[in-house]
Amino acid sequence: MNRRSFLHTATLASFASQVSAQKAGTPAPGYSGPVFKIGNIGCGGRGSFVSGIIAENPGLKLAAACDYFEDRVKAYGEKFQVTSDKQFSGLDGYKKMLEHVDAVAIHSPPFFHVQQAIDAVAAGKHVLIAKPVAIDVAGCETIRQLAKDAAARGIVVLADVQCRGDEFFQEGMKRIHSGTIGDLMFGECHYEADLIPLQSDADNTPEGRLKNWIRHRDLAGDIITEQNIHALDIVSWAFGRPTRISGVCGRGGRLDNVGDVSDHYALLFEFGKGAVTFASRQYTAWGSPFLCENRFVGTKGAFSGKFGGRVMIRGGKENFWAGGESKNLYRSGSVSNVESFRAAIAAKDPQGNPTVEGAVETTLLTLFGEHAAKAGRGVTWEEFIQAAAKVSPDLAGLKA
């Protein structure tokens, strides 16, 4: 753990309800449907975590795996019974993996997500893609169009963003967009977490840098995109696209100087209607607890939602909603998303790949926030788009 519009919400909720056989998001006992072979790209912590969920789903089989590091994919193979001939390494190893699977789950450093998704769809494979879907504007727009093109070909592309797979957040957003809390006026968003430990002491080498990818903006995006996205996804979902952002970011609480990502943000997001303040930190803060939550106030009520806690609406008798709790959302959200992925493949109907639009818009919101904070002044959406640059990390010294 240390680590939009009503129509869109309605489409997503409908998609989830149609493809999920049970409330818990897993196939019914005695499942006898088709089993789809999945290849996992990226065998680190998140990749192994979601692979555990995939392995529990009787309609899916982990058939192949790829990671840049050979020892990591070997350990993964031993854990999930992936045979040595279906284990691949190197930057391009996943391309060899594609001929052995029906689908891929992408859990590599975020810079690689876009090209890996492009290649998978080109090979006719379904794609489960982790957040963030990209780390620059060009990548976001590529993924947006890729999902549309894939849907036209019957290929499923699903973004594994945990809150979007949760029934309480889905219902809460549906109520917001239908006017339950009235016109949105203001809100606050928080993401606080401890620093993820270094994976290599040799950060000055190409492979050490790759192991420490989360500390490098050109591999992971800044921390607002790689981690804070969980909280900001709810802001994007409720308010839509910001018109202007101002604020600051920087590094001050971390004890090391590895990499170039920020360790705190303080921003003001302004929308067509209303505004949201945002604060985050990624360093050990004297015992401060993990915090990922939102509170939005409207003219008729107030919404509150915690990642792994209660989601509810406070108001009068006509709009109060007790909501509910998803105590282990980090897992339960992905359980639901994995099952939705399997069921959409089985139904041979991507339904337009609805989860990608929200994932793209939230990623753009985080990139907009980063740009404004580093500009040191208020920035409009138009200015942000005009200044957007493509990210191209130096991969020299890494094996193909």
SSE arrangement:
Layout: H1 6-19, E1 36-41, H2 45-56, E2 60-67, H3 70-80, E3 87-89, H4 93-97, E4 103-106, H5 113-122, E5 126-130, H6 137-152, E6 157-160, H7 167-177, E7 184-193, H8 206-211, H9 217-220, H10 223-226, H11 229-239, E8 244-250, E9 264-270, E10 275-282, E11 291-298, E12 301-306, E13 310-315, E14 321-325, H12 329-347, H13 355-375, E15 379-380, H14 381-387
Parallel strand pairs: 1-2, 1-4, 2-3, 4-5, 5-6, 7-10
Antiparallel strand pairs: 7-11, 8-9, 8-15, 9-10, 11-12, 12-13, 13-14
Sum this structure up briefly.
The chain is α/β, with parallel strands linked by helices and 400 residues long. It has helices at 6-19, 45-56, 70-80, 93-97, 113-122, 137-152, 167-177, 206-211, 217-220, 223-226, 229-239, 329-347, 355-375, 381-387, and strands spanning 36-41, 60-67, 87-89, 103-106, 126-130, 157-160, 184-193, 244-250, 264-270, 275-282, 291-298, 301-306, 310-315, 321-325, 379-380.
Question: Percent of residues in helical segments?
Answer: 25-40%
- CATH homologous superfamily name of the largest domain? Dihydrodipicolinate Reductase, domain 2
Helix/sheet category? alpha/beta
The CATH topology of the largest domain:
Dihydrodipicolinate Reductase, domain 2
Radius of gyration: 20 Å
For the record, the CATH architecture of the largest domain stands as 2-Layer Sandwich
Q: How many beta-strand runs?
A: 15
Q: Count the helices. How many? A: 14
Provide the spatial order of strands within the biggest beta sheet: 14-13-12-11-7-10-9-8-15
